């Protein structure tokens, strides 16, 4: 829907949308209250009672957005953009000045979708409004800025709004990240972990000491998985300390600390300080350097369970990364217990997914991957025999996207004696991968194929995030 010229002509109404009737004034529905140190913004939130109701609400939000553009009501435009993003389960709002107009897009389930466009002449006021909300400098338009605001929905959900501005050739681009601070942390099976991967994780969580690493690209859900693990070990008789950047969700019973790079409070110094706090279990945001890796190993060898993340593509590659950091194999094999690699895939919409024809070449790739699945009971053999996959079509319930929500693919590597021997022998990543698959490890690709055969996701999604095995 292009409303580019509608503010001038005032005539264009989006097709299929009802005429706006008795729209509430922005100030009546949305109150902006100032608090210290960040502003608290209250936005109306709707808990849809039924699907029809939800769709009606969505078109109501769109109508309000269009109306605020037509009437150049900037506060309403900004507030409705945020409320609508909440209703759409969006994680990020992108406001992008293009050459001839400004575009608002939402990231939903990891993918951007266009929402509305408005004329360029409104943009400076929109940016100023957002900057005031998040305590940024209005008159500074030449350099990027970061700020934040607290948003409270009417139903009491507390949202953290992180605002980032970036000067582009067409003006300032704004990205607002929405995070639900009061969201419940799902338990491991709800994240998509099952079978042998879940058993390995549950076993490792019972260990008194050792290192558990979670790896994957930014936005693959690592933090949620770690929080979910911490939730499991969060008992009254243990002291859990976390060093995070930033603390994303506060969990009752944990001592969570946030690093400050500008004053040299980083992961390594944080870990050392945490060790003096009589800990049982520790979580450090990321192992980026030798110093943090050394401290994590020291902590593990002195009787602590340590959780952390690494930036690698697969579980086994993490071993190579740590070796490249200069960690000797004997220290790795005596401290590292579990490596989780993960990706997020979109779930097919249950209401409109349909069986898909898979091309023979891809089918060969899939079969080859499944031949290397040694874990038993991971999937019904009939499903593997049938090789029936599903595809997205799109219906009203999924906003015509074909997908709704996301689920994790998990590859869980468990240390054992045969792997320890390979590490001592300086074996290649491929040899270690081979051995761990023989020991029953399910790879990201296999985990994805299993979820695709079960009709939870599509092969397109699986191969969007997981590599084909050579
Ligand atoms: Zn659908």
Identify the quaternary structure here: single chain
The residue ranges in which pLDDT falls below 50 over 5 or more consecutive positions are 1-37, 45-49
List the bound ligands.
zinc ion
Approximate helicity band: 25-40%
Tell me what the structure shows.
- There is one protein chain.
- The protein is α/β, with parallel strands linked by helices.
- 36% of the residues lie in helices and 25% in strands.
- It has 18 helices and 17 strands.
- It has helices at residues 6-9, 26-29, 51-70, 74-87, 123-133, 188-191, 195-205, 222-233, 267-275, 290-301, 315-324, 329-335, 360-371, 381-386, 417-424, 429-438, 444-453, 459-465; strands spanning 31-33, 40-43, 90-97, 101-108, 111-119, 145-153, 158-168, 171-180, 210-215, 240-244, 255-258, 281-284, 305-310, 336-348, 354-356, 389-391, 403-414.
- It has an eight-stranded mixed sheet with strand order 1-2-6-7-8-3-4-5. A seven-stranded mixed sheet has the order 11-10-12-13-9-14-17, with helices on both faces. Strands 15-16 form a two-stranded antiparallel sheet.
- α3 (51-70) runs antiparallel to α4, α15 (417-424) runs antiparallel to α16 and α17 runs antiparallel to α18.
- The longest helix has 20 residues, at 51-70.
- The protein starts with 5 loop residues before the first helix and ends in a 5-residue tail after the last helix.
- The relative contact order is 0.09.
- The structure holds zinc ion.
- Residues 349, 351-352, 394-395, 397-398, 402 line the site of zinc ion.
């Amino acid at each position: 829907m292009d409303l580019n010229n509608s503010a001038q002509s005032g005539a264009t109404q989006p097709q299929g949308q009802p005429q706006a009737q008795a729209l509430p004034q922005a100030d009546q529905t949305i109150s902006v209250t100032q608090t210290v140190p960040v502003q608290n913004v209250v936005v109306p939130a709707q808990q849809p009672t039924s699907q029809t109701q939800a769709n009606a609400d969505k078109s109501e939000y769109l109508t309000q957005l269009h109306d605020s553009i037509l009437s150049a009501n900037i506060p309403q435009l900004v507030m409705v953009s945020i409320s609508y993003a909440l209703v759409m389960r969006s994680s990020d709002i992108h406001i992008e000045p293009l050459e001839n107009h400004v575009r608002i897009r939402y990231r939903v389930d990891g993918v951007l979708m266009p929402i509305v466009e408005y004329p360029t002449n409104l943009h400076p006021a929109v940016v100023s409004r957002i900057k005031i909300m998040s305590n940024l400098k209005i008159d500074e338009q030449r350099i990027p800025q970061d700020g934040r605001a607290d948003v409270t929905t009417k139903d009491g959900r507390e949202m953290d709004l992180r605002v980032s501005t970036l000067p582009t050739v067409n003006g300032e681009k704004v990205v607002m990240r929405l995070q639900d601070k009061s969201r419940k942390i799902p338990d491991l099976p709800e994240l998509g972990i099952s079978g042998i991967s879940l058993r390995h994780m549950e076993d490792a969580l019972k260990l008194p000491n050792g290192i558990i690493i979670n790896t994957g690209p930014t936005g693959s859900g690592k933090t949620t998985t770690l929080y979910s693990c911490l939730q499991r070990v969060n008992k009254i008789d243990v002291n859990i300390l976390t060093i995070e950047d930033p603390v994303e969700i506060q969990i009752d019973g944990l001592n969570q600390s946030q690093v400050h790079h500008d004053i040299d409070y980083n992961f390594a110094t944080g870990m050392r300080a945490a060790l003096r706090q009589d800990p049982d279990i520790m979580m450090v945001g990321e192992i980026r350097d030798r110093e943090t890796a050394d401290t994590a190993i020291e902590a593990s060898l002195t009787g602590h369970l340590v959780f952390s993340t690494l930036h690698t593509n697969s579980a086994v590659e993490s071993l190579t990364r740590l070796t490249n950091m200069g960690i000797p194999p004997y220290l790795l094999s005596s401290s590292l217990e579990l490596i989780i690699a993960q990706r997020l895939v979109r779930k097919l919409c249950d209401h409109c997914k349909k069986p898909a024809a898979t091309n023979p070449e891809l089918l060969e790739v899939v079969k080859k991957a499944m031949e290397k699945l040694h874990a038993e009971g991971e999937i019904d053999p009939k499903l593997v025999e049938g090789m029936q996959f599903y595809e997205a079509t799109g219906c009203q319930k999924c906003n015509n996207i074909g997908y709704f929500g996301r689920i994790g693919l998990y590859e869980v590597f468990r240390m054992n004696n045969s792997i320890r021997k390979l590490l001592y022998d300086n074996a290649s990543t491929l040899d270690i991968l081979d051995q761990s698959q023989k020991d029953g490890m399910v790879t990201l690709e296999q985990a994805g194929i299993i979820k695709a055969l079960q009709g939870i996701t599509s092969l397109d999604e699986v191969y969007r995030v997981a590599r084909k095995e050579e």
